[in-house]
Design a protein that fits this description.
Blueprint: H1 3-23, H2 36-46, H3 50-57, H4 65-75
């Protein structure tokens, strides 16, 4: 077998196995629904409180990557950057 044949065989095998796993997600295999009382309790645990959000907004966010790099370099700090799959999450692509 040549390298190209092996790569093609591997690609076909991956595609077939992905199709089998996608078909196996039938309604019979779904987990049971979450009861209403438990859902409300879990939802309250996941939603941040106003105190937690206040800490988030107090952070010195920077929307310009060039300015952020200059500030980080001056303070010898790392940068946490968040970017969406289609460009800027702020809509300025």
């Amino acid at each position: 077998m040549t390298g190209r044949t092996i790569r093609l065989s591997a690609a076909v095998l991956v595609a077939l196995s992905a199709g089998v796993s996608a078909q196996s997600a039938t309604p019979d295999h779904l987990p049971p629904p979450i009861p209403t009382g438990s859902f409300e309790r879990l939802h309250k645990m996941l939603v941040p409180t106003s105190d937690e959000l206040a800490d988030f907004w107090d952070l010195p966010w920077e929307i310009n990557i060039h300015t952020a790099r200059q500030k980080a370099a001056a303070q010898d700090k790392p940068i946490l950057m968040y970017s969406g799959a289609n460009g800027s999450v702020l809509g300025a692509t």
